[in-house]
Design goal:
heterodimer, A: 313 residues, mainly alpha, MetI-like fold, 2 domains, 80% helix, B: 367 residues, alpha/beta, Rossmann fold, eight-stranded mixed sheet, three-stranded antiparallel sheet, globular
């Protein structure tokens, strides 16, 4: 029961946010200079043809009327047709969604695999060699721009020692995984530095907690104290950091997908913006925003599931 | 809460021995010495009280008895041993060695029950963890043992309450849970570090009564730390008075109360509402306790002492033997034989001590 109430409350809170996002996404792309009609026509531009195209696309109507059409269509699941690509927005998005979600999932997994053991270890051995040494790598990993890191990885593992594919998405699950190894690492390195820092701080704080002393004095093994009391409780806070950052990854994939030529939503977005493909940009902005909201909701739910004190509230 | 318990025979085996323990922590502000040359023994079945103001080193002392150091930077000299069980120095032994003794030989009841249980695990699971640490009993038996322990410490409806989380428990119930955890491995020594400080007065009395009752029924030895001399007076066989990281007086409770030898002990008694007759004024100790940074070897109570003379400023303190063979005591005061302390008189005594609101007790009668 408590769960249904929590989810219901969060969903209701999201409605005004979603409404706000539709306005922002609608207005922003129209504020960008450049006319879709002239971009579509290119060298064949004549004022008559441009007027005809605007008429066909509905761009001759007032902004409020256009917004009304966008919202009512969106509510019935229609996001319109792409101006430049011969497909519906729904079709384009569902084509690109797979690679993007795959990339986020694999990058998230890599991040967890790197960050959890590292953060736990340096937190438990504060001031040790690993802790001191990791600081340098954390700083570099955090400061290095991801496109530079991506290009470096391509150079090393694609050109000097060509053992991994450097572009595309491949066919079938195994090839997908293989193609996304380098992009995932590119995302996971800066992302895991954030998590390592926060897990380290959290572990250090938890080490001093009275309940850790209680557990220790029961005479249970140190391994058990670490897993059941230190990591479990320190992880609770880090899950929130992970979730919030995972949501922002959607935006981060735009650059990575271009560097590695992955046919995902990020590449689609860059294309659509440059051709002023209003329906696609609007649809994608809304989708990305929904993804952020969904990731936040999921994070909250995981947090509630991990901390019994929150379930009661 | 009147308790008349058998005073252990002096021949009772020694269960815990702290020998000249010092703990120092280097900090940027200087060297902090929370424990300075402390020696204590605890015999089987005995209740030893440690009393002192906040910052006198009580907590660090009693945690050192379990081999717990205040920080990774802390240095120690001296030794703590569990004679016959562990002759190695507890202060040098690592977690791996101490693990075998924690819970089964020695347990601790913490100062703050609200933060001493993990908020994300159920009460029953946390007790079960203490049981499982030292025995591999099958699940149904473990369940029975949890119920038994919870009943023993006075938690009503254990079958239901064991499924609760700590935030659903009151402070008193949490402390009962922690006592159950401490008892799960049938330890011979219990260290209770101000076990009632964080609780309200009525609950304090209940928890203290429970502790004393358990101590008597189970024959456990108990080290009870408190800043409340009236609590100590009711419960303990012997008392160590701590000041500035040092033991300044150590004697049997009755001896300490009737013939205090250290000016600080005397001043404490004269400031205690339960000990001073109603028609006499309470006397505050002027000044404040010393900070534990870069302390001198001379008497630390001297700045606040009404008996100090010039000799006191150069005397390197040491524990002196005082009292006869019948009531041995040690005291850290060079003038303890010349000065005439005036402990509060018991004539006209009728005021109950502060801590016993539930069941008023004559402060002197129990002795």
């Amino acid at each position: 029961m408590a769960w249904i109430a929590i989810i219901g409350r969060r969903l209701v809170q999201m409605l005004p946010i979603i409404f706000g996002i539709t306005i922002v996404s609608f207005v922003l792309i129209r504020m960008v200079p450049g006319d879709p009609a002239s971009l579509i026509l290119g060298n064949h531009y004549t004022p008559e043809a441009a007027t005809q195209i605007r008429l066909n696309l509905g761009l001759d109507q007032g902004v409020l009327a256009q917004y009304w059409i966008f919202v009512t269509n969106a509510l019935s699941g229609q996001f319109g047709h792409s101006y430049s690509l011969n497909a519906s927005v729904g079709q384009l998005v569902s084509d690109g969604l797979g690679p993007t979600l795959f990339l986020i999932a694999q990058a998230g997994l890599f991040t967890a695999v790197i960050a959890i053991p590292t953060g736990l270890y340096v937190g438990l051995h504060r001031g040790g060699i690993a802790d001191q040494g990791s600081r340098v790598f954390l700083l570099i990993g955090y400061a290095l721009p991801s496109f530079l890191l991506g290009v470096l990885l391509i150079l090393v593992f694609g050109v000097k020692v060509p053992i991994l594919p450097i572009s595309g998405f491949g066919e079938g699950f195994l090839e997908h995984v293989q193609h996304l190894i380098l992009p995932s690492i590119t995302i996971a390195i800066p992302f895991s530095t954030v998590l390592v820092r926060s897990l380290r701080a959290s572990v250090i704080e938890t080490l001093d907690a009275d309940y850790v002393t209680t557990a220790l004095l029961k005479g249970v093994s140190w391994r058990r104290v670490v897993s059941r009391h230190i990591l479990r409780n320190a992880g609770m806070k880090v899950v929130v950091v992970f979730g919030v950052n995972l949501a922002f990854l959607v935006g981060g994939t735009v650059v990575i997908e271009n560097v590695f030529s992955i046919p995902g939503l990020g590449s689609l977005l860059v294309n659509s913006v440059s051709t002023r493909d209003y329906p696609v940009v609007q649809g994608l902005t809304l989708l990305f925003a929904l993804f952020v909201l969904a990731a936040n909701l999921l994070t909250d739910l995981v947090h509630v599931a991990m901390d019994p004190r929150l379930a009661a509230a | 809460m009147r308790t008349v318990h058998a005073v252990p025979a002096p021949q009772a085996p020694v269960l815990l021995e702290a020998n000249d323990v010092s703990i120092t922590i280097p900090t940027s502000g200087g060297i902090v010495t929370p424990v300075d040359h402390v020696s204590l023994t605890l015999r089987s079945g005995e209740v030893l009280g440690i009393v002192g103001e906040t910052g006198s080193g009580k907590t660090v002392t009693c945690r050192s008895l379990l081999g717990l150091m205040p920080s990774a930077e802390a240095r120690h000299t001296g030794s703590v041993t569990y004679p016959g069980v562990m002759d190695e120095n507890v202060l040098d032994a690592g977690r791996g060695v101490m693990r075998k003794h924690w819970g089964t030989y020695i347990s601790m009841i913490p100062q703050n029950p609200m933060t001493s249980l993990n908020p994300v695990h159920r009460i029953g699971d946390q007790i079960a963890e203490a049981i499982a640490a030292h025995s591999s009993m099958p699940k149904p038996q473990r369940f029975d043992r949890i119920v038994e322990l919870m009943t023993r410490v006075g938690i009503p409806n254990p079958q239901k309450r064991m499924r609760d989380y700590p935030h659903q428990f009151s402070g008193g119930m949490l402390q009962r849970t922690l006592i159950a955890i401490a008892l799960a491995g049938d330890p011979r020594v219990l260290i209770a570090d101000e076990p009632t400080t964080a609780l309200d007065v009525i609950i304090q009395d209940q928890i203290l009564s429970l502790l004393v009752e358990l101590q008597r029924d189970l024959g456990t030895s108990l080290v009870l730390v408190s800043h409340d001399l009236s609590v100590i007076a009711q419960v303990c066989d012997r008392v160590a008075v701590m000041y500035g990281g040092q033991v300044v007086e150590l004697a049997e409770t009755a001896t300490l109360l009737h013939t205090p030898r250290h000016p600080y002990t005397n001043a404490l008694l004269r400031s205690l509402p339960g000990a001073v007759p109603r028609d006499q004024p309470l006397t505050a100790i002027s000044g404040s306790p010393p900070r534990l940074i870069d302390l001198p070897d001379t008497c630390r109570f001297r700045p606040r002492c009404t008996f100090a003379d010039e000799g006191c400023s150069t005397w390197t303190t040491q524990l002196l033997v005082a009292g006869g063979a019948s009531s041995p005591a040690s005291v850290r005061c060079r003038r303890h034989q010349e000065i005439e302390l005036q402990p509060p008189s018991r004539s006209g005594q009728e005021t109950p001590p502060r801590s016993s609101l539930v069941e008023p007790m004559d402060f002197w009668a129990a002795r």
